[in-house]
Amino acid sequence: MKKLLLFSFLLFSAFALAACGNNDEENSGSSDSEGNEESEGGEINLYTGRHYDTDQELYDQFTEETGIEVNVIEGKDDELIARMEREGKASEADLLITADAGRLHRAKSDDLLQEVDSEVLNENIPENLRDEENEWFGLTKRARVIVYNEETVNPDDIQNYSDLTKDEWEDKVLIRSSENIYNQSLVASMIAQDGEEAAKEWAQGIVDNMARDPQGGDRDQAKGIAAGEGDVAVMNTYYLGQMLNSEDEEEVEVAEQLGVIFPDQEGNGTHVNISGVGLAASSQNTEEAQKFMEFLTEESAQEQFAEANYEYPVNENVEPTEVLQEWGEFEEQDINLSELGENNGEAIQIMNEVGWK
Q1: Alpha-carbon span 238 to 221, nearest angstrom
Q2: Which of 91, 93, 97, 175 is the right S-S partner for 280, CB 3.0 to 4.6 Å?
Q3: Is 70 helix (H, G, I), strand (E, B) or coil?
Q4: How far apart are CA 156 and CA 158, in angstroms?
Q5: pLDDT at 156
Q6: Name one GO molecular function term (predicted).
Q7: Which portions of the chain are predicted below pLDDT 50?
Q8: Is 51 annotated as a binding residue?
Q9: Is 83 within the bounds of a domain?
């Protein structure tokens, strides 16, 4: 009898231990599953025309904080928009980052973007730097300024964009071609503020005073001044910031010869444009994509943007980098940047009519 009781006790203990073991395994499995869900925070596919190492550092930081992987597809801005058009609804794009509000407006007009309802974005980005229907949002700002040869030009002689059309600057103005979106948006802003006739008059005056046929990028206009091909040029601030801090000694030497003028400080203000982001209409990861957009507009990310590429932050709680602060504060054009895209067609037509190559 004692042997039978002992056997029953041992048998019961074995079943109990097995049951506990199964429960432990189930609990362990449940814990692992939850852990995987937290570490596998999803992913987003980012089509971007920005090609900066510091941007990738921000993406990596976002992944570390959220577990959301950022798959980066780089390309030229216009080519990425064309790719999204070809791919249509089948596109795997979740987000588009590109330079110039004109391009963002084009993407919106082609139904490539969708609305984002975010209090964070609305709070971090001023109203004029985001789409009126919340389909794109500014990430960084750059001003389109006048630079000049400090040895040959008195900056008091140039206060406005219109001063570049005066007879005294004949054969002295350097500027990029009419195919450049930055110049198209500059003319588009003039249409928005002063009308088509005034914009056309300005464009004609620029063509009349060009030192040479337009060629190259903004840096090439600066180099043209240093080479004596012209005395004044129009360029974006971040290019000059990059040149001043370049590893190329020639670029530094060129930039150090130039002064900066923020035009129209007593009038319409200096033309400002953006690089910005939009949520792709094809996105299958809208929640993750919105988190990423919001992350890029927070103060810490904005500081890194501004510091790395010499751009102005869109978040007004963040100070510009020291180089930009040295140039001083300035008044910006008071228009919603959506108008740059809305007036792009008219701007191109005007530039073609006046012979801006």
Answers
A1: 14
A2: 93
A3: strand
A4: 5
A5: 95
A6: metal ion binding
A7: 1-39
A8: yes
A9: yes
In Å, how far from its chain's centre is CA 201?
A: 30
H/E run at residue 234: strand 232-236
Tell me the pLDDT tens digit for each residue of 331-351: 999 999 999 999 999 999 999
Same-domain check for residues 345 and 205: yes
Q: Is 32 helix (H, G, I), strand (E, B) or coil?
A: helix
Consult the annotation and say whether 239 binds a ligand.
yes
> DSSP 3-state assignment of 261?
strand
What pLDDT, on a 0 to 100 scale, did the predictor assign at position 307?
84
Residue 68 is assigned to a structural domain of this protein: yes
Token pair 């904080």 is found at 65
182 marked as binding residue: no
Q: Is 170 within the bounds of a domain?
A: yes
Same-domain check for residues 180 and 257? yes
Give the pLDDT of residue 252. 97
Question: How high is the pLDDT of residue 308?
Answer: 84
Give, in order, the Cα–Cα distances in Å from 230 to each of 161, 174, 184, 236, 237.
16, 6, 22, 17, 19
Q: What CATH number does the domain containing 78 carry?
A: 3.40.190.10
Tokens 């070809």 appear where?
Answer: 86
What are the residues facing 299 on neighbouring strands?
A: none
Domain match, 108 and 222 both: no
Q: What tokens were used for 328? A: 């001083």
Domain of 173 in residue numbering reads as: 142-271+338-353
DSSP 40: -
Phi/psi for 98 (5° steps) reads: -150, 165
- Judge whether 44 and 93 are in contact, CB under 8 Å: no
